[in-house]
Amino acid sequence: MAPVIILLGPPGAGKGTQARILEENFGLIQLSTGDLLRAAVSAGTPSGLAAKAVMAAGALVSDEIVLAILKDRMRQPDVAKGIILDGFPRTAGQAAALDQLLAETGQKITAAISLEVDDAAMVGRVAGRHSCAACGEGYHDQFKRPARAGVCDKCGGTEFKRRADDNAETVRDRLAAYHAQTAPLIAYYDSKGVLERIDAMGAIADIRQSLGQIVTGITA
Ligand code: AMP
User: Fold this and answer.
1) Nearest to 4 by CA among 96, 88, 124
2) Host H or E run for residue 20
3) How many Cα atoms sit within 13 Å of 97 on the Cβ side?
4) 87 to each of 16, 32, 145, 216, how far by Cα in Å?
5) Which of 60, 84, 125, 162 to mutate to test the pocket of ligand 1 (most atoms within 8 A of CB)?
6) What is the average pLDDT value for the chain, to the nearest integer?
7) Which of 33-64 are b and which e, b meaning 16 or more Cβ less than 10 Å from the residue's Cβ?
8) What pLDDT does 219 receive?
9) Residue 90 — very low, low, confident or very high, per pLDDT cuts 50/70/90?
């Protein structure tokens, strides 16, 4: 059965960075509801128009919209390789809907991996991040600069973008939303026997190694 891996953790924990690494190393598909929503906002779809202000305020978009875009993405054939859910589920309702969606297709959650971090460090982690406009490779003003200033290590691109919601004030609201609505899912997945916890305060390479060991174990 193709793996279904959930990455849990507050904004800044490194879910997106690590999901991209897992995608490259294990051939899994990263499904980021944040990326899907940002694409909908840019395309000006009805879901994007409804989500835009909510995202800018650092609150959670309705389960209805998020589930619709996720289900749409799950209809693409590439997800048969196995998926890493990055930023989904974020509410009890989304977790229940995911269980149902997987049951309908005879799948189940392989692991929910909680990236454990100190909140206090998250504002700084999020506020400095940016990504290559061409290939999406992530960077950080302090923790991960390109080898040559202003040039993407991966594709040589020279344009970088910053997310509108990656500012200190919105990050605090996003952290509050995480604690109120998403953190309870850690206990939910623990009770289902699929929870793994890793210390995600260290360097990207160290977290990559801990995560790689877990994923090797569950995909072997
Ligand atoms: P992210 O890229 O995961 O940090 O998500 C950015 C923003 O998109 C969040 O602050 C929410 O406004 C929205 N969002 C992303 N995923 C979800 C989700 N699963 N449920 C509700 N809102 C979401």
Assistant:
1) 88
2) helix 15-26
3) 16
4) 8, 6, 24, 22
5) 60
6) 95
7) bbbbbbebbeeeeebbebbbeebeebebbebe
8) 81
9) very high
- Give the dihedral sign, CA 183/117/193/110: positive
**Which protein residue has the closest C-alpha to ligand 1 atom 5?**
34
Measured CA to CA, the distance from residue 169 to residue 166 in angstroms comes to 9
Contacts 24+ apart (CB under 8 A), 207-212: 207/14, 207/18, 207/115, 208/18, 208/21, 211/18, 211/21, 211/22, 211/113, 212/21, 212/22, 212/25
- Whether the per-residue pLDDT at 85 is higher than 80: the answer is yes
Angle 46-56/63-74 helices, nearest 10 degrees?
A: 130
Please tell me the residue having the least CA distance from ligand 1 atom 19.
88
Q: Look up residue 187 and give its two tokens.
A: 């206990």
Q: Under DSSP, is residue 43 helix (H, G, I), strand (E, B) or coil?
A: helix
Residue 181 is given by DSSP the state I
Among candidate residues 114, 85, 128, the one with its CA nearest the CA of residue 210: 114
Rounded to 10°, the helix 63-74/92-104 angle is: 30
Q: What is the pTM of this model?
A: 0.94
| Mutation test residue for ligand 1: of 61, 63, 162, the one with most atoms within 8 Å of CB | 61
Say how far residue 67 (Cα) sits from the centre of its chain. Answer: 15
CB neighbour list of residue 44: distance below 8 Å, 6 or more residues apart: none
Q: Residue 17: CB within 6 Å of ligand 1?
A: no
